[in-house]
Amino acid sequence: MSYARKKRKGKGEKSGRALKIFIILIIFTTLASLSVGIGIVVGLTKDLPRLEDQAQSAAAQTSSIYSSEGELITTFHAEQNRTIIPFSEIPPNMKNATIAIEDERFYLHSGLDPRRILGALVADIKAGGKPVEGASTITQQYVKNIFLTHEKTFERKIKEMALAYQVEQKYSKDKILEKYLNTIYYGSGCYGVETAAETFFNKKAKDMTLEECALLAGTAKSPNNYSPYVNPEKAKTRRNIVINKMLELGFITKSDAETARAAPVEVEPVKEKNIRAAYFVEYVKQLLIEEFGENAVFKGGLKVYTTIDLKKQTYAEEAITKTLNREGDPSAAIVALEPKTGYIRAMVGGRDFNTQKFNLAVQGKRQAGSSFKTFVLATAIEEGFSPSKVYESGPTTIKLPGKDWKVTNYAGGGSGPMTIWQGTIKSVNGVYARLMMDVGAEKVVTVAKKMGITSHLEPYPAIALGGLQTGVCPLEMASAYGTLANEGIHTKPIAILKVIDSHGNIIKENKTESKAAINPASAYLVTNILEDVIKRGTGTRAKIGRPAAGKTGTAQNYQDAWFVGYTPDLSVAVWVGYSKGQIPMKNVHGIRVSGGSFPTQIWAQFMLKALEDTPRTAFPVPKSGLIRVTICAETGLLPTEFCPHLTVGTFIKGTQPTKKCTLHNGIEVPNVVGLTQTEAIKAIKNAKLGTTVFIENSGTVPAGYVIRQNLNPGSLAKEGTIVGIVVSTGPSPEEPPEIEEPHEEPTSSP
Fold this sequence. Notes:
This protein is α+β, with helices and mostly antiparallel strands. It is 37% helix and 15% strand. The longest helix is centred in the N-terminal third of the chain and has 43 residues, at 3-45.
């Protein structure tokens, strides 16, 4: 054997031994991992509830909801609203719709579906790790609803899988599907398909149509989100997805699918008992379901302590009903929260919860109009812009990639140069469009998000005027404006203080979460400007006799109207509009509804009552970074001797005005000598001056004509200066000639 062959043989023997060792290590590691995994699984599943204990584990305990004062608001319970029906009375379309949308391989797996788990994992990886597709089978969902909580932990998932396997060994597939359809929550307090059919369609489950079955099956994934009462459009979209899936799997024909998709979503009105703070309670319920699941919320005996102040809640409801009290009036929403704690103290999502379940306070995404200018202003101040910076205020067309941006002013307002301060007070679109182009839409989006806006925002210039793609809701607007009231610190809104389970354990406790959003000096300066909006701008109806700041907003074509305002103690957003569709409000109580009308009135009515026991406090002034300067109240520039109204403005050091007012250069006093009194007064009034009249006899000037004036014609004076004029009463009447009395000389006596 050659040396080369021996060498190759030696290398081959060595590599073969290495491969064997590697394989042995892999097997050993796998067995060790498997042993550990089995040990973990055994440990986690040793305390599983027995299937025979189902009745006991599913027994309902009423959950209670309390106000911030500990007063019981309402209770959640479920068992009273469930009717069990046999498999034979559940229509085939309901069974097939559920299988199609929830678990299409239901009759092929043994409780767990590895193929579906792998598919969900791949989908999640493609989405960047974000969960986008569920992998739970119908059996897993059933055991989770009956035996387990909805906590998202590895331990709970292992128990769910083990129980699902047990259920599959004990019951037939048809029996599992029957149990699932009799226990699943469909929303509106309905558990099980029979109760849902009676509530939604006023019929037995066996009599439901294809489209009705598809609607219910689609609702089960997220009962509130896909509720035909809360989100009819989403419910219809989801229903049609179910129908398409049924067609794909061969459960229905193409003709059946087309007919079902074309059918409108029609449901029976739900008869509700009157619940205090109904919209807030519904909001809290959904938060609880998202975290703990329907089973815990409706049967877990939870005690939920919330932030709602029932007195303030009543004031909010009354403010709406007293203002919008006629048939056909638009709806309205209010959210009031504390800037420092984030506690939601009042929430109204519409005029009547029984007729309108959709919560406009948190679910309604509406155009913000000029109320969004506040975020442009805050960004500009953060970037070092002075409120005294001057822009042209008239209409303009701004060239943008793809399409020009045509900007007009509300009611034809705005003309000539105007400061940012003025443009805010008067809500002039022309000023803010130009300011936005200087500041940059991306920066505005960043600041708005930091301040508390949670809705998706596209960095388009039109957002300066409230032109948003998805809109915003009152909750996030109140939260974001609260950042200004809280010296630039944003506090996350809180509705639930703590949750206690049936054993007395605190299973959730919310603490205040605060984070600096903008500089305290910037927040104070924005507040200072927004105070002027109420004092002498578009929000004068919001005067409440204490320091307050805010901004009006009116969406295009009067479809949405806002007022968002705050004091140091409370931040409140008010929206007025129609809940269904974008309907113009051009004739409500005889007026066009703008932010300065009904929203401002509702805000003021609420605040006057809500703060009546709260001491008046000014907004806290930052310890450094600001300078106070006397300015012209109308222009925000340094005053001239002719500025009629002065005020003290606050500025970040280095941004205070350096130029003098160009609006008030003095008014030329007209020459009114020789005019009639009426003509003279009119001429002086037209010059924006005042008049005082004196009268005097004159033998040379006819009666009723001006003899002279106290200010020289052509001289300059302040607006409102009083011009004294002397008006002739004509010549004085001639005095009678002096008559000498008869005089007798004394006579001497004879």
